[in-house]
Amino acid sequence: MAETFKELERAERDSRWPRAAILDAAHFNADGLMPAIAQQHDSGEVLMMAWMNREALDETLRTGRVCYWSRSRGKLWRKGESSGQQQHLRSASLDCDGDTLLLRVDQTGPACHTGRRSCFYVALEETGARITSDPLIDPDTLYQKP
Q: 138 among the known binding-site residues?
């Protein structure tokens, strides 16, 4: 664990640290990525998990519009750029190890590419899996190009 995060363990509430120093000490994986969990700021609903690199995180903090790193596209992915279903950042936090982000967001419409509010709609139960929600928007409609 980075020495900076060891220091933060004993830091007093409301103490301030330079953002750049914290992000420099944060742990991005070998691909330069960190998992980011998006949570609806007012309800606490977990919406999705995606990946961020330093550039995506910097853009998100600078603009307030959530930006991820798309591993499949190999480029920055501004949430909602093709669906219109944007995430606006309310707050961002690192976990105690500096290797996972929690983004509290204001999500417009569905967060999931399936048209559902949350990506976490497959409940694993003792005897199988159960779908827990219906799409809010048909995914074929969600991604139609005008």
A: no
Is 64 contained in some domain? yes
Q: Is 97 annotated as contributing to ligand binding?
A: yes
Q: Please check if 112 is assigned to a binding site.
A: yes
Length of the chain: 146
Please give the backbone phi and psi of residue 79, each rounded to the nearest 5 degrees, phi first: -50, 125
> 96 labelled as ligand-binding?
yes
Structural domains of the chain, count: 1
Q: Which domain holds residue 52?
A: 3-112
57-71, 79-93, 100-114: least confidently modelled range: 79-93
Which tokens hold the place of 65? 């519009």
**Does position 107 have pLDDT exceeding 90, yes or no?**
yes
Instruction: Report yes or no on 118 lying in a domain.
Output: no
